[in-house]
Amino acid sequence: MFNFGRSLFCRPTFARTVRKMCPAAAYSKSNKSPTSLPSPPPPTSPSYVEALYTSWLDDPNSVNASWNEFFKNSDAMEDKVPARNIGSAAATAATAAVPKNRSTDNQPILLSVIGAYVSRGHFAAMLDPLGRSKVFTDPKYRIEALYGGRASPISSADLNQTFPLPPATSIGGDNRDGALPLREIVERLERIYCRSVGVEYAFIDSVEQNQWIKERVEMPGEISALNNMEKRRLLTSLAKSTGFESYLARKWSSEKRFGLEGCEVLIPALNEILDESSYYGVDTVFLGMPHRGRLNVLANVCRKPLRTIFAQFHGLKAADHGSGDVKYHLGAHVKQTNERTGKPLTVALVANPSHLEAVDPVVLGKTRAEQFYRGDSNGDKVMSILLHGDSSISGQGVVYETFNMSGLPDYTAHGTVHVVVNNQVGFTAEPKISRTSNYCTDVAKVIGAPVFHVNADDPEAVIRVCKIAAKWRKTFKKDVVIDLVCYRRNGHNEGDEPMFTQPLMYKKIRSIMPVFEKFKDKLVVENVVTSDEAKKESDEYDRLCEEEFSASLKETHVKYGDWLDSPWPGFFKETTNLNVPKTGVTEDILLHVGNVFSSLPSAAGDQKFVVHKGIDRIFKGRQKMLADRVVDWALAEAMAFGSLLKDGTHVRLSGQDSERGTFSHRHHVLHDQLDGKTYRPLANLYPKQADYTVCNSFLSEYAVMGFELGYSITNPNALVCWEAQFGDFNNTAQCIIDQFISSGESKWMRQSGLVLLLPHSYEGMGPEHSSARLERFLQMCSEDADVLPEKNEHSVVKQLQDTNWIIANCSTPANYFHILRRQLALPFRKPLVIMSPKSLLRHPDAKSGLDEMTSDTGFLRVIPDNGPAASDPSGVKRLIFCSGKVYYDLIKAREERNLSGTVAVCRVEQISPFPFDLIGEECDKYQNADIMWTQEEPKNNGAWTYVQPRFYTALKGAKTISYAGRPAAASPATGNKVQHAAENHNILIKSFGGI
Questions:
Q1: Which part of the chain is the Transketolase-like pyrimidine-binding domain (predicted)?
Q2: By CB neighbour count within 10 A (0-12 exposed, 13-18 middle, 19+ buried), where does 859 fall?
Q3: Which of 391, 447, 712, 928 lies deepest, with the highest CB count within 10 Å?
Q4: DSSP annotation string for 629-691
Q5: What CATH number did the domain enclosing 275 receive?
Q6: In this predicted model, what pLDDT tens digit does every residue of 158-189 receive, in sequence order?
């Protein structure tokens, strides 16, 4: 039986099969003793069997009878034997190099031919609308493509032979047990695999999925021609797609718009996917795409009003706060009624920058979040579509990271439809210098996603492929790829000259009729439409564009709020409430959460949950802290999460090893040491609590951070945290940080409450495990260092409202507890960047009392000195400001030097927005003290360059501030522990020197 799934001759499987089926005697060419063979290779040698198989193809009687039976019933050798594989499209050329003494009286010929078309037919398909490939003109080249450079196994006599169809093929339609002449079989295979569609699916491991695709592409009824109504609808969609680009080109000929000319079929393709998905029950679709064709998609897929799009070309002032973005980066969120099904359908196009594929994980995060909140556990109602360029899908690593999410339980979006606009050129780079792989889509094979390559100038083939793709996603909830092989009629943008670098390609493009004209002429010949009817379609759309253009002239401002991809209905009702929120909770809640977090699940009968003895010690330590009414970092975090869960707030924490915690402090998922079952204490706090999700991410920062960002912007009433294994690792997600998190609200009016937890402090762990690059985050803060905020009862929250994000370096568990809860208490959402601790997780002095977390308490932006120095401020000679872990080093050194009464140490917990008011108050308190900033980081890193000008503003130039810390350096930290200790010692000497 012909098996299109995993090859039998993958080496482990092959070895087992040969050992089982073929004893040593079987390796003889006759039934003679194996001793007649001179030192045969071992039974597991594929090279030996390949030679044997070649001999058997020439003469089945030349091998042992057991091998004869084996080869007759196996297709697994077809891709292993050189110069033997697979059939031909052109029968006359196919037989040219075939020996004339071939026997056609056996099934392997047919199996070989069918296998060739299934596994390599896409190489011989006529995919390029420019017709530049030799498969269009050279039959010999087509045979080489089909057979991988091998000769055809078919003779002219073979073509007239009648063969019974193997059960695994569907080319016979419902008559699977029938027989056909080989000539007819080859012609059918040609039509299926080598015309406008090339299908890659033979590599898929699942036999069921493999067979499913085979039936869809091979069964006549599954990929039949469109009926006349469908063809007319397709023509209308092409008229809109083409007309939109033509209208913009006429009205704004010098404007960049990154038009879709050359791939106008994208619009009917996306609409077909939406229509089919709506039919299958989907009512919400999130799209991510680059800039090419984006305006057309907004107009003719999302159905964004044309007047709103046209207004973006008028150069109007913005009616909203923020800097905005160019029109081909903006998003949309449109509720519509699907014209085909009559069902409601929400389509959201996610805003994105020119980092073409950076939006991919954001879309998946939004999709997964929407599925979660709606209880759509299988993705039946909510789905995602991602558009790619041919250069970016193969060139940008985040694409692989995004594909890798597809099957992970806590990240899957239950199947994404990927559509590639394959221009066959990236800006000016041709495919041969853009990738090593055969196809730009080869990355999709990693997850077993089928790939449909289709000639974009064959609109009917495109629609048929889209139908299959939508049904695949519905059936298997797995990713699928549609590769629209097209061209780019203009340069990279409308003002670019492509002839500089691709003269031959663009000579060909200039001579090609647009796809709408080709398809129109085809339908006229088929008597589906008349020329007048086709012209009417174009004229109607052009008239609509004129009407909408006139309406757009009445607009006075651009409203970026109209382009939100993530609206939060009703959330901003209380934006006038700018009081500082109280974030403490009652002690009984703290104790309840703490006790559950520090206990094992109740035993069910004899099924006691057995934890590692180390965790047993941790639990006992936690219980002792609760008895003493103090908490450490892990307890405070659990109490913050647990109290929010009690209030109905969904909490999600993800990152590398976040379940346990990189530093083995968290243990939010317990593992039974006997049977491996797991228990999550925070998911079992209250009967009606909100859902708690904690998950270890795969080894990615870029995609996972983007995913969590997308998750966070779906619903404002959730606490979503991404944790770096070490804070330094956020640098591989810098694109998400720069383009989406720090500036998303300014560019796209899109708020997010995402929390970034970045372990940061200098513990002698080297340059890659020390610094979360605090200076980078501070540099991107939108706050003006020279402007002193107005001081009133609302100024604290107003600062938070006006900033682009919040950056903190907490030094106490209680403050960490409060800042997490404050994320949900504010009447708006801002990203929160926390420099998380490492040694402070277990530092004996880094503890907080329950009284610091109860009802009348809140987050402290600054923690003043509360020791002897504060009792007699006039006797203080030095006021040291610091942030984070270095505080504990300073306190210890101060005590050792007996300077507790002469040196005050003040902690800045919220670095941005800068606490101008509290800094001024502290400096005023210590009138006789000089002022110093101490940090662990090098002088050109850390907070120094950020705080220095703000201190001057807060003090109105009355005092200067000096620096103590590491000298400026290229590397963030040393990797030598002796040097690290010496640097720490020097920091303390500088901090207390001269007193």
A1: 631-843
A2: buried
A3: 712
A4: TEE-HHHHHHHHHHHHHHTT-EEEEEETTTTT-TTS----SEE-TTT--EE-GGGGS-TTPPP
A5: 3.40.50.970
A6: 888 888 888 888 888 766 667 889 999 999 99
Give the three-state DSSP class for 50. helix
| Alpha carbons 108 and 2: distance in angstroms, whole number | 10
Here the CATH number for the domain that contains residue 961 is: 3.40.50.11610
Q: Where are the beta strands (DSSP E) in 390-444?
A: 416-422
Last residue of a domain, one of 185, 218, 251: 218
Q: Do 188 and 236 fall into the same domain? A: no
Q: Using one digit for the tens of pLDDT, what is the confidence trace for 345-403?
A: 999 999 998 888 999 999 999 999 999 999 999 999 999 999 999 999 999 999 999 99
Same domain, 636 and 696: yes
Q: Looking at 852, 884, 914, which one is the last position of a domain?
A: 852
| Coil vs helix vs strand at 880 | strand
Same domain, 540 and 612: no
Both tokens assigned to 753: 């409450």
Q: Which amino acid is at 327?
A: K
| pTM of the complete model | 0.88
Beta-sheet strands, E only, within 769-838: 806-808, 832-836
> Residue 669 CB: number of other CB atoms within 10 A?
17
Residues 6 or more apart in contact with residue 143 via CB below 8 angstroms: 88, 89, 90, 93, 94, 124, 152
Write the pLDDT tens digit of every residue in 716-759.
999 999 999 999 999 999 999 999 999 999 988 899 999 999 99
Structural domain includes residue 857: no
**Cβ density class 67-85: b for 16+ within 10 Å, e for less:** bbebbeebbbbbbbbeebb
224's enclosing H/E stretch is none
Instruction: State the Cα–Cα distance between residues 133 and 198, nearest whole angstrom.
Output: 14
Residues 198 and 283 in one domain: no
CATH number at residue 598: 3.40.50.12470
Task: Give the tens place of pLDDT for each residue, 304-332.
Answer: 999 999 988 887 777 667 777 777 778 89
- How far apart (Å, rounded) are the C-alpha atoms in residues 226 and 224? 7
Alpha-carbon distance 242 to 263, whole Å? 9
- 21 and 68 in a single domain? The answer is yes
Structure tokens at 536: 């009417």
Domain around 27: 11-218
Considering the domain architecture, whether residues 624 and 547 belong to the same structural domain is answered as no
Tokens encoding 833: 């960047």
Decide which of 862 and 151 is more confident: 862
Please report the pLDDT score of residue 35 as a whole number.
32
